[in-house]
Amino acid sequence: MRRNRLLLCFLLGIAIMFYGVPYLNFQGDTKTIVFSIAWIVFALIAISGNMIALLYGKRVERSRTTRQKASPQRKQKVRQYS
C-alpha cells in the first residue's frame, strides 16, 4: 500500500512539473524569478524524495525489523517513583 502511494505521488509530482514549468516566468523582476526558482526547487525535492523512498524503502524496513528483534532481550522496565 505504501509503495502505491509513493508511486502515485512521484507521478503526480512529474505531472505538476510538466504542467507548471511553462507557466513560470524567468524574466522580469527579482520576485518573479526567485518564486520560479523556488517553485522548481521544491518540486524537485518532492519528486526526488518520493523516488528515493521507492528505491530504498525495502532496505530501511529490513534494517528496522532486525533492530526490533534484537532489542527486546535487552529492554527492562524501569520504574521510578519520586
Mean pLDDT: 83
Structural class: mainly alpha
Low-pLDDT parts are: none
Overall number of structural domains: 1
DSSP summary, beta strand count: 0
Query: What is the radius of gyration?
Result: 22 Å
Which band does the percent of strand residues land in? Answer: under 5%
What summary fits the major beta sheet?
Answer: none
- Quaternary organization: single chain
User: What portion of residues is helical?
Assistant: over 70%
Q: Please tally the helical runs, counting DSSP H or I stretches of 4 or more residues.
A: 2
State the end-to-end CA separation. Answer: 46 Å
Q: How does the overall form come out from the CA principal axes?
A: elongated
Q: Write the H/E string, N to C.
A: HH
Keywords: Membrane, Transmembrane, Transmembrane helix
Transmembrane segments: 36-57
